[in-house]
Amino acid sequence: MLKKTFAALALGSMLFAGQAMAADYVIDKQGQHAFVNFKASHLGYSWLWGTFKDFEGSFRFDAAQPEASKVKVTLKTASLDTNHAERDKHLRSDDFLNVGKHPTATFESTSVKSTGEGTADIEGNLTLNGVTKPVVIAAKFIGEGDDPWGGYRAGFEGTTTLKLKDFDIKMDLGPATQTVDLIISVEGVRK
Predict the structure, then answer these.
(1) Closest Cα partner for 159 from 143, 135, 176, 177?
(2) What is the DSSP secondary-structure string of 94-144?
(3) What is the pTM of this model?
(4) Rounded to an integer, what distance in angstroms lies between the CA atom of residue 44 and that of residue 5?
(5) 103 CB-near residues (< 8 Å, 6+ apart)
(6) Closest CA to 180 of 104, 171, 110, 32
(7) Which of 10, 135, 147, 182 is exposed most, by the fewest CB atoms within 10 A?
(8) Is the C-alpha dihedral spanning 145, 65, 139, 187 positive or negative?
(9) What is the mean pLDDT of the segment spanning 83-87?
């Protein structure tokens, strides 16, 4: 009888913990705890790194049921920064992102599939340069818990590789630069 009672209590606390962990989060851009970075090969000799400084988003995360998680992010394409004003101006032009015509890019998840302990593939639709394509972000859970200001946070990182031509980017930078890698790091504050 004691074993059954203990088992029932343990199962009940696990179910309660799982339900308590399901929550909505706002990406903490204000505290600079989130980044949307990219890198592309420069002629096959080095990497060109950049970031998008202005974006917002949210996610729903349930550690007990990661497949029920959701992600939505919108970024302002003109916020692109590679630490070189003339290059940034060119990347914002219609040769690349055409920010005058397409001022935002969006990603919205369609499914999350666990791939191992703390990892998942986030499938979704990316709209960039006026083109919407399915992409898969390889995501890794970093951690979650209370913060010093009375809030609760969860953090993830993710990567994906995009083919420039898939998003109607016509500028040909040579065979070494046909793709760009996105590196995403987010920390969310529970609502």
Answers:
(1) 135
(2) TTTT-TTT--EEEEEEEEEEEEETTEEEEEEEEEETTEEEEEEEEEEEEEE
(3) 0.86
(4) 64
(5) 76, 77, 78
(6) 171
(7) 10
(8) negative
(9) 97
Which are the contacts of 134, defined by CB distance < 8 A and separation ≥ 6? 110, 123, 124, 125, 126
Sequential DSSP letters for 44-65: TTEEEEEEE--EEEEEEE-TT-
How many whole angstroms separate alpha carbon 23 and alpha carbon 89?
39
Cα separation, 71 vs 137, in Å, equals 11
Please, what sign has the CA dihedral across residues 25, 52, 77, 98?
A: negative
Coil, strand or helix at 43: coil
48-69 pLDDT, tens digit per residue, is 999 999 999 999 998 889 899 9
Which residues lie across from 144 on neighbouring strands? 154
Task: Work out whether strand 70-76 and strand 46-52 pair parallel, antiparallel, or are unpaired.
Answer: unpaired
